[in-house]
Amino acid sequence: MTNRRLLFAVAWLASVSATCQAEEKAKCVPKPTLKCVLEIAAPLVDEAGTLAQFHYLADIALAQKKLGDNAALQRTISVARRRAAELSVSSDESLQLFHKLRFAEFFLAVGLPDPILAEFDPEIADAKDYWTHPSIRLVERYVRYLVKVGRRDEAQAATAEQYKWLLAAGPSMLTRKPDERSYAYGQDLLRAMILAGQHETAQKLGAEIWAQLRRQPPAKASDNGGFDGEENIGARLGLARQLIEAGKPTPTAEILSDARTMLGPLPTPSPNLSQSDQRRIKLRALLHELELALSRLSKNAVLAQSTITAMRKLRATLPAKDKAGQLWKDSILLLEAGVKPLPPEFREEATSLLSSARSNDELRAIGEIYAMWGDEVSTRAVVARFKQEEDAEFVAEKVCDICKRFARHGHVSAALNCATLLTGSQEWQRVNRVALYAEIAKALTP
What we know:
Blueprint: H1 2-14, H2 19-28, H3 34-48, H4 54-67, H5 70-90, H6 93-110, H7 121-132, H8 140-148, H9 152-169, H10 185-195, H11 199-215, H12 230-245, H13 252-263, H14 275-297, H15 301-317, H16 320-336, H17 344-354, H18 360-373, H19 376-383, H20 392-408, H21 412-418, H22 427-444
Helix pairs in contact: 3-4, 3-22, 4-5, 4-6, 4-22, 5-6, 7-8, 8-9, 8-10, 9-10, 10-11, 10-12, 11-12, 12-13, 12-14, 13-14, 14-15, 15-16, 16-17, 16-18, 17-18, 18-19, 18-20, 20-21, 20-22
């Protein structure tokens, strides 16, 4: 059964959906240009129609605008409008606002203000009521809507008013959560300030929140496998993330150091970690992510190297089934932090994990790691091992993820070669091709 499945997978990957795909590869490889890629992408957008995601349509539209192809741009905009119209009547009511926001983001991203933005007035008014409600008084949602529709001045005025209210209410209000909601007042306002682009004020507020967090005793463990102090560590890491987003290394380094001390040593490696140890590991992985981001922000090579070492030690504590996924996450984080190329041991670790990979999720993670290196031969060998018992749509989506990873890391020719693996004429197969060519166009857009 295994051999038959493998033969099926290899045959599937070797096939080419139509003559036009072979032409695409011959036309754009080995010296791909944006013009060539967009000539392929334009008809794909028409074929995928209203199933194409707004952010992929925006990437293609931006590239068309950059190239000055107004006719193709207008066709892409038309597809986006049709998608918005269909979603407004076909989606669940609770999702309609979500889709409408994506549509607004499309027009803002492309730089084409549209009357659709005025349609958000009722949602903005509702968010303002949410902010001014005496028992809620959270401003981030209101600010987020204002920023999304291009009303940044109003957003900044709202954060200033909220900050004034919080200062008058006293410092303890910064870490208080209204009605058991997820975010405390201070964290909510900090998120809003970052959205509104008020980074200097955000740093000042962050320092005030940090002063309050330090005064709080360790919270007792929850009943669902937590540990004492878990909530305190989570609050510290959440604050550090926001300050990094604001581009402020101070007091971020101090906050992360305190969180590291509270977490204590790594658990002993085991295939059956306790719930408490699993939660500690998740928090430690987040800590390393933030330390790596801080190392880039502060240009601290020593911190970057010590964090890479700590990441490797953490992966060693994980059960075998979780190692590939964590290596994938860590690889992305290193590249985002400017560690290029990846350390050679990351490739060696991926190769070692490949021999024991059991699930398509593990294989997808390893395939993406090879794609980060631009290794076409190894990625195709990984894809050939995908288990076909999984739904064909999910398997194809994982192949598309690997192809997109080539493009995201600058391996455009490899991404175009990978496109020949995305075969078929069903709607979801066409959508996968739109997603990939959008990533390729984005990679080629100056």
